[in-house]
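tool_log.txt
---
The assistant was asked to compare two proteins side by side. It first ran the structure predictor on the initial sequence, then on the second. Raw inputs and outputs are pasted verbatim so the downstream comparison step can read them without reformatting.
(1)
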Amino acid sequence: MNLKCGHLIAIIFAFGVLGAIILSFFTVTLSKIEPVRDRLTGYPTWHGVYQGFDRQKNDTMGTFIAVIMLVVGLIGLKLVLNPPTKPSLITKFYTVSDDNQESVISEVSTIGFNRSLVTYTLITSITAIAGVIFDIGKLWSAIGLFHNTIEIIILLLIGSGGRLTNVSYFVWMLIYIVSVAGICIFSNFPIDALFFKIQGLCMDYALVIEFVRIYISTKNHQDAGKDELPLDNDDYNDNQSKLLPITFNHHNSIIFLILASSAHVF
C-alpha cells in the first residue's frame, strides 16, 4: 500500500514539474535566435552562432564520436550474433517477487536487451553522422527520432523483465513516432527544437534512473544473502587469477551502463 502511494505521489510530482515547465514558456521571453543555415540544404537549423563557435571543430567531434560508436557497435554486433555458451558469460533478467519469500518468478535471457543496446549504438552513430551532414535541425529529427525510439524499447525491455510480449507496446511506439515527427514537422522554431530536446532528455534521464535502480536492487539482493541469482564470476573461477576475471559480478557490471547513460545525457 505504501509503495503504491509512493508511486502515485511520484507521478503527481512529475506531472506538476512538467506543467511548471510548460507554463514557463508563457512567462519567459526568449531572446531572438537567428538559426544557422545548413550548408548542404540551406534549411534553418536548431541552433544559432555563439561566440567561439567553430564548425570544423564541431564536425570533427561529431565524426569522431560516430566512428567510435560504429566500431563499438560492430564489435557488439559480432558478440550478439554469436552469443556465448559458457555459464559464466550468460546473463539473464531475473524477476523477483515482492513478497517475503523473495523467490524468482521468471528468468529471461538478456540477448534481446543486448541486441537493443547494439542497435542503439549503431543508430547513435548514424545519428551523429547525420548531424554532421545535415546539421541538427528539422530534417535531422527524422533520423534522430529513431535514436529515441530505441531508448524507449530498452526501457520497455527493462520494465517487462527482458521480453516484449504485449502487442500494445508496439502500437504505443508507433503513436510516439508519428506524434513526435508530426510536432517537429509542423511546429516552428524554437518550439520544434525545444520539444524534441525535452522529450529526448526524458528518455535519457529515465535510462540513468532505471540502471541505477537495477544496480541498487541487485546489490541489495546479493548483500542480503539471497541465493536465487545464479553464481557470479568468482564462484565459477575460484582457481583462476583475480587480475583478469572473465566477467564482473552482477551489480558491478551494471556500473558500465550507468556511466555510459550518464555520459550520454551530457
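(2)
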Amino acid sequence: MIYQEYLPFESLLQQVEKKEIKLPFPLEYTIEKIEKIKKKIPKSYDNIARILALSRPVVELVLFKRDYQEPERAPNSRGRPGISTTSLILIHLLSKTMISDSYRQAERILNAHPTWLKALDLKKAPSHTTMSKFRKNRGVDFFDSYFHQLTELLFAFGLIKEKDDVIVDSAPIEASQNFARSNSGIKINEAKLQEFFNTVDFTPAANLIAPACELGRKRKYSNEVILKFIAFEKLCGFLSRNQALTYLKKHPSAAKIVGFSSGDVPSTPSINNYLKRIPPIPWLMRVMVDSITEFFESQADYDDHDPLSFFFRSF
C-alpha cells in the first residue's frame, strides 16, 4: 500500500515505516474507526449527518485501496482551503441519492444544514461550480473504478455475497415534466367531453348561486355555463384560464359542448368578474362530488393512477 498524505492513515503508516507497529488489515482499521466515530457522534446530528460521518472512513478506504493521489489544491480567492476528494465524493453521493440532482439546489440545502457540513468537515458547502468541475475533471473512469472498488469492499465486509440475489423495487413518483411544453399542443377528446357534460348535472351547484339583481346588468352567461367552463379548465389540465379560453376559441365544437353555443367565448377578465360575484368554487362543487366520481368510476378506460386530464386528452 502506498503512503497517501491526505488520508487519516498518515500517522499509522508513519509508525509502520518506523517499524513501531504492524499494519492491521485495512478493513479492521476502518471498522475500528467507524466504532470510534459512533461513540463521538453529537446528539444534534440527524440521520443524514450520521450517515455522512460514518461513511467517511469507507470512502477514505476505497480511495486508499485505489492508490489515489490527492491533488494539491491551492486556497481559493477568499483564502479558504481546498475541499478534499473524500468530502466531494460524499457530497455527490448525498446529492444523487437523497436531496437533489441539481448542484445549485444541493449547495443551498447543505448550507441550510450545519450538522451536515460538520459531518463533512466543512464550514461552508462547495459552490455548484466546484461540484460540477470535480465530476468533470475526475471523469467516468475514476467513478467506475471507485464503485468497482467499493463493491469489492462490500464483499469483504460480507454485506453482499457471490450467490446473493438482488431485488430492485420501485415506487411511483411524480415526474419532473415540462408542463408548458406538453400543453403546447393539447388536444381534447370531444366525445369524452360531450359524454361527461351529458352525464353530470351542474344544476345543483348552479342553484346555490343567488340570482342576479333585477336592476343590475343582465349576465351574458348562465351560472351553469360558467361552472361547466371551470370544470373544463380544471379537469382537462390546462396551465391557465387563458389557455383554456384560447383553446375554446380555436375549437368552436368544444366551446359548444361546454355551453358557449353561440361561439362567443368570454375573455379571462370576464370569467374572473363572474367568479368574484359568486361563492367559492370548491364550496359550490361539493354537491357534485358524488356525481362526478360516479361518472369516472363508470368509465372502463379510466385509470385512477393517471391524472384526470389524461382521460380527456387525445394522444
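---
observation on (2): The chain has 17 helices and no strands. Confidence is low (pLDDT under 50) at residues 1-13, 20-24.
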